[in-house]
Amino acid sequence: MIELKDMQLLTALARHRHFAKAAEASNMSQPAFSMRIRSLEDKLGLSIVRRGNRFQGLTGEGQMIVDRARSILDDAKALDQEIAAARGEVTGTLVLGVVPTATSYAAQLINRLHQAHPRVLARLEVTTSLSIQQRLYDGTIDVGVTYSDSVGRDHINLLPLYDETYVLLASEPMLAGYGDAISWQEAANLPLSLLEPQMQNRRILDRIFADLDLKPEIMSESTGFMASIVMARAGSVAAILPLALIEALGPLDGTRAVRLVDPDQTRPICLASVERQTELTTVRALKDVIAADAR
User: Whole-prediction pTM value?
Assistant: First the structure.
């Protein structure tokens, strides 16, 4: 019989596709991890992993086992939470995958969740919209806070959250002569710091500029907004940021945030979760918090 621990190790290996990384994520040494996988293969009488000088993937039988293991582990997690709920408790770990532009919103949402259910441990993982979709299906995150148009609809529930809008953050000298708004054309002529091209927010901005037949002056790229904000405060670049982030941070000395207009641009952000026969109590609690905010 396959134990839950074996299933956890196999799903970790399928996720990381690397024995050392999967062992580290499982809090095991690599030799012990590899020995456990080999012992499971011997017990089952079949090969789970295609081996060479490095991990080469799962066999067909291995992938079948991993797919089933993910479902069983998901059911086990749901059962643990349902048992706690029967005792009048909402407890457990809630893993959120969040696109960088929605980090501030997600952090505020977690605060409200903790106020309502202090025994829920929320883990926020900032990642790409593509990774969120993949990890929803493989069960390594419970919900995603992401762009509505970046998530497939197969067995996925989408709960609208808010419309993302954009502002330009720059030093006071760089914005001299501008009021509380700036056009996209004017912004394209400033030295800009943006996210890297593979990020969904960057693809959105690239599409906006392309639709307006503009070629922005991009001075730096990063995987997160912190570097852009620091550089904007120093006066070397301007940064295009989601309004929700600026509202969460509050005033930043020496800088000003102005609305991007002509045209106004918005993108819908949603909460994405996998359809389950029995919804995780932590996910249900998060949705209740969102519903309470909407009232």
Answer: 0.75
Overall residue count recorded for the chain in this entry? 295
The whole-chain average pLDDT of the chain stands at: 89
DSSP letters for 1-47: ---HHHHHHHHHHHHH-SHHHHHHHTTS-HHHHHHHHHHHHHHHTS-
Question: Distance between CA 217 and CA 260 in Å, rounded?
Answer: 16
Q: Which residue bears the tokens 């290996």?
A: 13
Question: How buried is residue 90: exposed, middle or buried, by Cβ count under 10 Å (0-12/13-18/19+)?
Answer: buried
In single-letter form, the type of residue at position 74 comes to D
Predicted pLDDT of residue 55: 78
Tokens 């086990």 -> residue: 76
Question: What class does CATH assign to 165-265?
Answer: alpha beta
Pairing of strands 55-58, 49-51: antiparallel
Q: What is the pLDDT of residue 172?
A: 94
Structural domain spans, the chain = 4-72, 89-162+268-294, 165-265
- Under CATH, to which class is 89-162+268-294 assigned? alpha beta
- Please tell me the CATH code under which domain 4-72 is placed: 1.10.10.10
H-only helix segments in 170-240: 184-188, 200-211, 226-234
* Contact present, 260 and 240 (Cβ < 8 Å): yes
Instruction: Give the SS3 label for residue 88.
Output: coil
Q: What is the mean pLDDT of residues 59-87?
A: 79
Q: How does pLDDT run across 111-169, given as a tens digit for each residue?
A: 999 999 999 999 999 998 989 998 888 788 999 999 998 887 778 899 999 999 999 99
- What is the spatial distance between Cα 82 and Cα 233, in angstroms, rounded to a whole number? 48
